[in-house]
Amino acid sequence: MKCVILGGGGFLGYHLCKALLAEGHGVRIFDRPNLERFSLPCGSEGVEWTEGDFVNQEDLQSAIAGCDIIYHLVSTTLPKTSNDNPIYDIETNVIGTLRLLDLLKGSNKKLIFVSSGGTVYGIPTEVPIKESHPTQPLCSYGIAKVTIEKYLALYHHLHKLDYYIFRLSNPFGERQRVIAAQGVIAVFLYKVLQEQPIEIWGDGTVVRDYIYVEDAVASLVKAIAYGGDCRVFNVGSGEGRSLIEVLAAIKALLGKEVRCIFTPSRAFDVPSNVLDISLAAQHLHWCPRITFREGLLRTLTWIVDHGIS
Q: What's the CA gap between 123 and 106, in Å, rounded?
């Protein structure tokens, strides 16, 4: 298949590109101009790199031309900042996606949308969280993701759009940015290596589902061959860890003390988010294979080997 990864120039896009190439698929990456690019994976000489504006329909049309599979990874906001400007969130994420969906009307292309398992559900009434759980996001980022999901279902109903939604938890691994507003695993590892204090929002008891990035993208690759009726899949480890437990694992791995600064909790942080991944196991024959500790070790090794620490 020929695949295009919209928003493919970052951490997740790199690993998805690598996984698709390993399966023999052709890959085109589309991202915004002047992006600080990740180097492409080995064996990627045939990968196309195109640039443009996600909200520009002509750029989108050029990006998807000749492609069978469209991976939608674009997100212009973060959960942390999305509530500051919801209008921007709608203009750059929802409207851009609607322009993409209009281009796909009447085509036989398959759209695979990476949604947010960490934000769309809001405060859970049960853990682990099933795909059938109500969606009550507490941030504009999550609302935008749910809105896009609803439009995908609408375009399927009206125009037979072939789509699948992957609600991804918290991916981590090699090449994740160590100085960033999200991605606590890489950020925490870097700060401990630098003997810098780690800022914790709240008391450190919030629980999240962390999945190694190679496992996460393996589920996305599975979507190419899948043609069933189940349209929405949770993708996570199925295990929850508090920030305190993450720090304890890092401390045990590095043998270093961890200094923490505790600050007030944030309004959009839910107390617990652990995904039920049984649907993906049943329908996609997928399950995570890399343990949290092994993923942590691989991430640490990459940071040290590349002189980032």
A: 38
Report the b/e string of 148-171 with b at 16+ CB within 10 A: bbebbeebeeeeebbbbbbbbbbb
Task: Mark residue 285 as left, alpha or beta (left: phi above 0; alpha: psi -120 to 50; beta: remaining).
Answer: left
CB 211 within 8 A of CB 240: no
Give percent of the chain above pLDDT 70: 96
Q: What string of H, E and C letters represents the secondary structure of 236-293?
A: CCCCCEEHHHHHHHHHHHHCCCCCEEEECCCCCCCCECCECCHHHHHHHCCCCCCCHH
- pLDDT band at 309, cuts 50/70/90? low
Residue owning tokens 């780690």:
198
Q: What digits encode the pLDDT tens for the residues 243-301?
A: 999 999 999 999 988 899 999 988 889 999 999 999 999 999 999 999 999 999 999 99
- End-to-end Cα, the chain, rounded Å: 39
Identify the burial level of 3 via C-beta atoms within 10 angstroms of its C-beta, where 0-12 means exposed, 13-18 middle and 19 or more buried.
buried
**CA 290, CA 237: separation in Å to the nearest integer?**
9
| Average pLDDT of every residue of the chain | 94
Q: Which domains does the chain have, with CATH numbers?
A: 2-171+211-238+278-284 (3.40.50.720), 176-207+239-275+290-305 (3.90.25.10)
3-state secondary structure of 52: coil
133 in helix, strand or coil? coil
Residue-wise pLDDT tens digits, 104-135: 999 999 999 999 999 999 999 999 999 999 99
